[in-house]
Structure prediction request, 432 residues.
Amino acid sequence: MPLFPIFVKLDGRPVLLVGAGPVGEAKIAGLLSAGALVTVVAPTATPGIQTLAEAGTIAWQRREFAPQDLDGVSLVVAAVPKDIARAVYEAARIRSVLVNSVDDPDNCDFYYPAVVNRGDLQIAISTGGHSPALAQRLRIELEQQFGPEYESWIRRLGEARQGLFARDMDPDERKKKLHEMAAAAEGPTSTSGPGLPGAGMVYLVGGGPGDPELLTVKALRILGQADVVLHDDLLTDEILELIPPTARIECVGKRHGERQMTQEEINRRLCRYGAAGQTVVRLKGGDGAIFGRASEEMDALRASDVPFTIVPGVTAASGAAAAARVSLTDRRLGSALVFLTAQRCKGNPPPNWKAVAALGGATAIYMPGGHEGELARQLIEAGLASSTPCFVVAGASRPDEQVVETTLGELPGIQHLPRPALLLIGVLSAKH
Ligand code: SAH
Prediction:
């Protein structure tokens, strides 16, 4: 017999739990969050159940189960050995009360499905008891497909729906609008508005240091929805291959063009595509908000009233530390971690090297681009020992990753590594 799927309103309804061990305890939170009035019957109970009973959150009948416990009850959950579960099941059947016996299908009228919970959006999965493992797998897949952003989107859709019903309008037109709202691809992740179609969305996405497996689940999902992707030079082919063939790809870095596109032109494109209702992904290496000009893009998007969402990524310093098998911080060395870039915007003062040296902790230098010798000299002059351990990491997390371990004093003499490369100074290596 196929099962009949339903979602039940338990608010204010009495529910009986027979058995008060850890398995029973695990069932209580779900029942309470649906508003059920929970009574537990069992001679002994876990400390957690005792605490809930003392607080009056649930009632605890401190004795064996008796059939009359089922009088007036809507549902019963049995978390007890099979013989007691059988007695509960038989008594419940006479009274037409539905039973779930945990891990005991023979004594069940209903099963707990695997559930994807996104606030008021709940997706329940049943395999009719054939494969709970498959149900779990499907749950995980659905959780990736329908991210946490659905929670607020469902709420906004509900509000927009109420608004449409409050209006005097043609029912067919209302129906059409309701379907359009639910179909809007950018809806769940839009930060403004009721999820109405027409408003595009620009995602500022960090793509990590290169290994596609270091993309976040969110970045991957959003890439799959993109109409257009604007990426820079740091993105590896393996990541670009994940962009759906239906999306237009624009490389706005130096590698593919003679001239790098100006930041202003990139800003203009982001605003134009977003305003045209497209799902735009601005894909950058690492974390876009670290030496990535993200704030200039955000300013432009704000000025044009184009909604945007930031998706952080794994920054190169984290990728480099993993490649060098070191920790970026170490409480034995200090409490600071400095991210520096060796490139300066015209007019900005040079870093205060003395302050950096005095902080105590590691320094990650982005874009060292051939200035390694000069950087080492400045740091030694500022007070760091020339024996300070130092790593040059090129292509962190990529197949051609290279790690060179040296010291600050010897850094000027080492051979230049291919770009992108990053310097890690003052991290504790395995040798120390
Ligand atoms: N937003 C990026 C950094 C952009 S600046 C992030 O958060 O990682 C560009 C610099 O990042 C490069 O010059 C290099 O120093 C560093 N970088 C980026 N990817 C790298 C990688 N895979 N390995 C080593 N360094 C990398």
